[in-house]
Each structure stands twice: as C-alpha cells, then as structure tokens.
Amino acid sequence: MAAAPTRLTIGTRGSALARWQAEWVKNRLQAAHPDLDVSLAIIKTTGDKILDVPLANVGGKGLFVKEIEEALLAGTVDLAVHSMKDVPTVLPAALHLAAIPQREDPYDALISRSGLSLAKLPEGATIGTSSLRRQAQLLAYRNDFTIASLRGNLDTRLRKVADGAMDAIVLATAGLRRLGWDGRITEILAPSVCLPAIGQGALGIECRRDDQRVNRLVAALDDPETRACVEAERAFLARLEGGCQVPIAAHATLRGDRLRLQGLIASVRGERVLRDEIAGASGDGQALGRELAERLLGRGGDAVLRAIYAESG
C-alpha cells in the first residue's frame, strides 16, 4: 500500500474567519498525523468579489465555494474547508463532504451600539444583515425595524455599528467566537426569535471521492453527532430547493439517539412565517428533514416560495 502523503494543501477563502477555520483544520490534522506538512491556498470566490450587492440579488448557488471546488477538481488543492451554511446541497459528483467536525454555537448574535437587547431597541431601529432569513424573522418579531444590507468581512460589519451607521447588526455567533470577538455580543438570539441557517456553526471538509489517502487522513475530524444534525438540516433544504435568495431556516439537535429538527419558511418581509418541528431516530435524519419540508410545503410554504421566486425573477 502506498504511503500516506506527507504534504496536504487546503483550499480556503481569504477572509480572517475563513483562514481561522482552515488553520483550525490544519492544526487538528497535524495533531492527528504529526508527520503531515499542511499548507493553505487562498482562493477568491465569486461571493468575495461582489461586495456591493445583497447576496439575494446575486443569484445562483455556491457563491463562496465554486472556485474552491474547481481547484479541488483540478487537483491543485487536496481538500477544502467551508462554512457549511455556504455549501450547496448538491455537490459535483467527484466531490463529497469527507468530514463535518464538531459544531460551534449555531445561533445568531445581536450586536447593538447602545447595548440594548433586540426587544428594547428603539422604534424604527436600523439593523444590518446580509441574510433574507434573518430579515424575515426580525421583521416578523418587530415590523418597525429598518433592515439595511450588510456585506463585507466581520470587522467591516462591526465597524458599521461602532461608526453609528446602524443601531445593531446580526451575525453568526460561531464566527465571532472563533475570532475572539464574543465580547462584542449583546444578545444571543433564541431560535424562537431567529432560527439559524442550515449548517450554521459547522465546518465542512470537502475532498475528492477517489482520493482514498486524503479521505482516510480527514476522517479523524468527523463528528458523527454534528454530521447527523447537519445532514437532517440539509435534507430539509434540498427538498425545498432553497438558496440564499429564500428565507429558509432549520436547526437540528441530538439527545442520545433522538434527533429533533425545527424548520421554517417565511416571506421576505416576514408577513408570513411557517414553522414546524419533527423528531425521530438519529439515523433517520435525512428522512425527517424531507418529511418536515413536505409538511411546511403542504401548509402553504409552496405558495410562499413560488411568490418569492416570481418576484425575484
């Protein structure tokens, strides 16, 4: 049998958070396999290049992964590290998610300039977010909020609050914690207020299916509980055929061998929010995700999604 490779190259985006995540994977790979030499290759994606347009208006799927997957397929990198919430539910046939490490906090965080909680923000407060999912749920919670488009890396977004351009912003708790900025968090939003994005807080390590040596090396980083939850959420999203243009949310939790999945479909301005949940055996997560999606579609989610796609053209 051929010896395991002594060198590996990780493909990653260039933001501070993406580099942190890739370094985290690098360190764990080297801890599990001390003779490995792991390096990073920074790849600029379409989502990184278009910063002056809301993501929902850019269209398409895989805005933050396509170019990295192309490098994987070309063999210029050996593996890729993604934020799972950015990964489309359909991957190129030659690629797969070889590992999904243990998840960080999956919830959304409010950072307000005044230190006030979401409930106590003044009437008409301006909240920045790049996510239609967050927008819909924030407006469903309080329809007096003004939602402002928020793009750029984390420090750029934080500066919008510090400079007074916005009263508050909503970001993923996981990214703030990974970069050591959790002290800036005013409030972690309960899932009853803002259900997270599919896969939020989890990382995905993507590899070529036929690269058995790399797959064996990466397998040590897989967390079965996180994988079960994320796969249930992704099955929900796949059945709805949703992307960043649609306010869809889901979050799964696991207690013992019992998986609980909450899901949501909403109109863009939050006038209509459909929520439900389902529970079952952890091994049935993908079937549970599809069943929950069917339930919400049957309760009017289909009409909500059709209206959003018709409006977005």
List the main descriptive attributes of the protein structure presented here.
alpha/beta, Double Stranded RNA Binding Domain, five-stranded mixed beta sheet, globular, 24% strand, 313 residues, D-Maltodextrin-Binding Protein, domain 2, 3 domains
Q: Which term fits the overall shape? A: globular
The low-confidence parts are none
Looking across the biggest beta sheet, what order are the strands in?
2-1-3-10-4
Q: What is the CATH class of the largest domain?
A: Alpha Beta
Helix content: 25-40%
- By DSSP, the count of extended strands is 13
Assigned CATH architecture of the largest domain: 3-Layer(aba) Sandwich
CATH topology description of the largest domain: D-Maltodextrin-Binding Protein, domain 2
Largest sheet: 5 strands, mixed
- Return the average pLDDT rounded to an integer: 91
Gyration radius, rounded: 19 Å
The total domain count is: 3
Order of helices and strands: EHEHHHEEEEHEHEHEEHHEEEH
How many DSSP H or I helices?
10
How does the helix and strand content classify structurally?
alpha/beta
The portion of residues forming beta strands comes to 15-25%
How far from one another are the termini? 54 Å
- According to CATH, the homologous superfamily of the largest domain is Periplasmic binding protein-like II
